[in-house]
Write a structure and sequence with these properties.
By secondary structure, the protein is an alpha/beta fold. It has four domains: about 120 residues, Beta-grasp domain (Ubiquitin-like (UB roll), Roll); about 90 residues, Ubiquitin-like (UB roll) (Roll), CATH 3.10.20.880; about 150 residues, Nucleotidyltransferase, domain 5 (2-Layer Sandwich); about 325 residues, no CATH class. It has 18 helices and 29 strands. Strand 13 and strand 14 form a beta hairpin. Helix 8 packs across helix 14 and helix 8 packs across helix 15. It is elongated and about 100 Å long. Bound molecules: FE2/S2 (inorganic) cluster.
Length: about 725
């Protein structure tokens, strides 16, 4: 252990015959304390991360510790068991009521020092335990929520000390927990006396304190808003140990909610629902148009999304009874904090802001900072004093959802250049590393979601999602959502009896076109080669162009020339956006690519690169970021400091407006080719046999050259 890192507490007495020397692991903090000092007290004095809600009364069980076995150099002892007081009655009572503790564990508030000891604080007893290990390896999120519980015993009123109940409650919080100068929500005044008497002067208090700040921030309580001041937001009679937070990702199509315990950071239940705003318009711009055409349409949509969120809160609270063993249904009233991510239009509608300005240049946001408010002000039906935190938007087309992706993926901590892409109707793109971050959005349109594609449909049962084409015979095989089998597997027909083969989804269309390109059906310019009709009956003449017949059944699914064109337009827009950002950073290569969102989760990254949606990169470094936006919301829920982090990140990222960048068009034209007109895809070439760059226009030029030569010769 490093003595330098663990200075002796100044108020700790020197070690002597009636002193115990205690070392805490894993922190390594150490000090000397009089015999009889509870381990919890020693931990607190040393600043050791040991949890407690009940203040050492043996009720909450959060302070569990282990006596480590092994060498302990100070007095050369090897066993520590005898150096703590014996198992106390309170611990037996705790086990009787709450069930047995893990082997060897003691309650830190009950076990007292009797000799030199090494105390291990297990991770689940640490206040700031690591709660999110997902995302990238370097992401390390510690539990440090804005709302915490404190159990107190309040002095009873006395004729000689005529102070109010609230004053005595605050005094208990100050004495027992060091919480001074707390405000209290005024709507709690009415019930406070009843609660304190019902609990026989014992109560649990929820305190909201968002004041976790990064080291370089110097905010004091004077420049915090009224919402940001530490305050009592809920009081329960007696001991209460369950409070919840909900992380919510409001997408244009779906809304996802994750119910999390604010006391241990666990995700208890997750659920999703369709965004009811779909009835006002499929995509974002049609919803903005709805507002333009229908005065009051914004309010209708705001109400619709808020109602859906309130229904989801009921669903996750109910579901927890079935998802977590021994957990009863959660109470809506115990939801005390909510965090939100959303794209700019959803963000505005959620907050009750008319999104019309986002419908046209210069795409001005009403505000681009985070929003910290009472959830009730957003019409959210949780605890009356529950807090809501909405992550900041980056720009008019780059929303709080992308801010969430950045928070979850942490590209700003790396030396490597990361490219983050969230594909939807607009692709939101972030590029950079610890030195510099740039962001833009690019108008990809809905083709990647299966819209504007002849056989396109949402990713639902019956949709073709995987395709392979034999380059010799040009025969396809495919799989559909809802069946594990390939279409040429025995039993496939039966397996899709109930769902049918109904269309092709976004990831399916990417694979179909990429496979057509690899099989030589489509050339570099995206033209379906009619000469292939001689080789396969699946190449069909379609006016002046050709189509590829993918499936012939109840529903006939073809990939038409227009489908290919739509994907080319979408992918060229995405790639051109990426190139603008690469130009801005002056780089030729990216080191890692993360594809966020549902599209990113389902797409095969190899095919995305074959088509040139994304630039060349070592294939292993191209991965799905999963639900990174939702993870960002979860991180903001679990760790107050991360809110400051994302605010600073968004503030520092350079925003680029693709619409006014003169080079966008040039990049766009070059990016229409598969995978690209001029950029080399050497990394991709190591794992995929890319067809030679040859376009129909080259072939046409070659034919005319030959014909001119023949004429001259003739
Ligand atoms: Fe609550 Fe020990 S601090 S049981």
């Amino acid at each position: 252990m490093n003595q330098r890192d663990n200075p002796k507490p100044t108020d700790s007495p020197q070690s002597g015959s009636d002193q115990a020397h205690v070392v805490f692991t894993p922190s390594g903090k150490r000090g000397d304390f009089p015999f009889g000092t509870p381990v919890l007290d020693a931990a607190r004095k040393l600043g050791v991360d040991l949890d407690s809600v009940c203040g050492g009364r043996g009720i909450c069980g959060r302070c569990q510790i282990l006596c480590s076995e092994g060498e302990f150099s100070k007095h050369g002892i090897t066993s520590t068991q005898a150096h703590l007081t014996a198992y106390a009655e309170v611990e037996e009572r705790y086990e009787r009521i709450k069930g047995a503790m893990k082997t060897g564990r003691r309650l830190g508030c009950q076990a007292k020092l009797q000799g030199d000891v090494v105390i291990d604080v297990p991770e689940d007893s640490q206040v700031h335990r690591q709660v999110i290990r997902k995302a990238a390896d370097h992401v390390d999120v510690k539990l440090d929520p804005t709302v915490r519980l404190y159990y107190v015993e309040v002095e009873q009123p006395d004729m000689h000390d005529p102070s109010g109940d609230l004053r005595r409650l605050k005094k208990a919080l100050a004495t027992e927990w060091g919480l001074d100068n707390l405000d209290c929500e005024s709507n709690l005044f009415g019930n406070l006396q009843k609660i304190l008497r019902e609990g026989e002067w014992k109560a649990t208090v929820a305190v909201y304190d968002p004041a976790a700040r990064t080291a370089d921030q110097t905010e004091t309580s004077d420049n915090l808003t009224a919402y940001d001041k530490p305050r009592i937001i809920s009081v329960w009679p007696g001991f209460h140990d369950r409070i919840y937070g909900v992380a919510i990702d409001v997408g244009s199509t779906t809304i996802a909610a994750h119910l999390c315990s604010l006391t241990d950071g666990e995700v208890l239940a997750s659920s999703g629902a369709m965004n009811p705003q779909i009835r006002f318009g499929e995509d974002l711009m049609s919803r903005v148009s709805y507002v333009m055409m229908n005065p009051g349409g914004d309010t209708e949509m705001t109400n619709a999304v808020r109602e859906a969120i309130n229904e989801l809160l009921v669903v996750v609270c109910t579901e927890v009874a079935s998802t977590v063993e021994g957990h009863e249904q959660a109470s809506i009233n115990d939801i005390l904090d909510l965090t939100f991510v959303a794209n700019p239009v959803m963000h505005h509608l959620l907050l009750g802001i008319d999104p019309v300005e986002l419908g046209g240049a210069p795409f001005a946001l009403a505000f681009d900072e985070s929003a910290s408010l009472r959830a009730a002000e957003m019409g959210i039906a949780a605890n009356l004093n529950a807090r809501a935190y909405v992550l900041p938007c980056i720009a008019g087309h780059v929303g709080a959802d992308t801010a969430g992706v950045m928070l979850a993926e942490q590209p700003h901590l790396l030396d490597d250049i990361s490219l983050l892409v969230d594909v939807g109707t607009n692709a939101e793109i972030v590029l950079g590393n610890r030195e510099r971050m740039v962001a833009c959005s690019s108008p990809t349109g809905p083709a990647f979601e299966g819209a504007q594609i002849s056989g396109g449909q949402r990713a639902a049962p019956g949709a073709i999602e995987r395709i392979r084409i034999d380059p010799e015979t040009l025969e396809p095989k495919f799989s559909v959502i809802g069946s594990e089998l390939w279409s040429n597997d025995e039993g496939f027909e039966e397996s899709v009896n109930n769902i049918g083969v109904t269309g092709i989804c976004g990831s399916g269309i990417i694979e179909a076109i990429a496979e057509m390109f690899l099989a030589g059906i489509i050339d570099t310019d995206g033209v379906i080669d009619g000469a292939m009709a001689a080789k396969s009956e699946r190449i069909l003449a379609d006016g002046r162009t050709f189509s590829y017949l993918l499936h012939d059944g109840d529903v006939r699914i073809i990939i038409s020339q227009n489908d290919v064109r739509q994907i080319q337009l979408a992918k060229a827009a995405l790639y051109a956006g990426v190139k603008l950002l690469m130009d801005r950073l002056g780089i030729e290569k990216v080191q890692r690519i993360r594809l966020a969102g549902a599209f990113g989760s389902h797409i095969d990254v190899k095919y995305a690169m074959v088509l040139g949606l994304i630039p060349d990169c070592v294939l292993e470094q191209v991965t799905s970021a999963g639900n990174a936006a939702g993870n960002g919301a979860r991180i903001a829920l679990m760790n107050a400091n991360s809110r400051r982090e994302v605010e600073s990140l968004v503030h520092n990222v350079e925003k680029i407006e693709t619409a006014v960048e003169p080079k966008f068009q040039e990049h766009f034209v070059l990016a229409m080719a598969f995978p690209h007109k001029s950029d080399e895809f050497t990394e991709l070439g190591k794992v995929v046999n890319l067809p030679e760059r040859k376009s129909t226009s080259d072939a046409g030029r070659e034919r005319s050259r030959k014909s001119r030569r023949r004429k001259r010769a003739g």
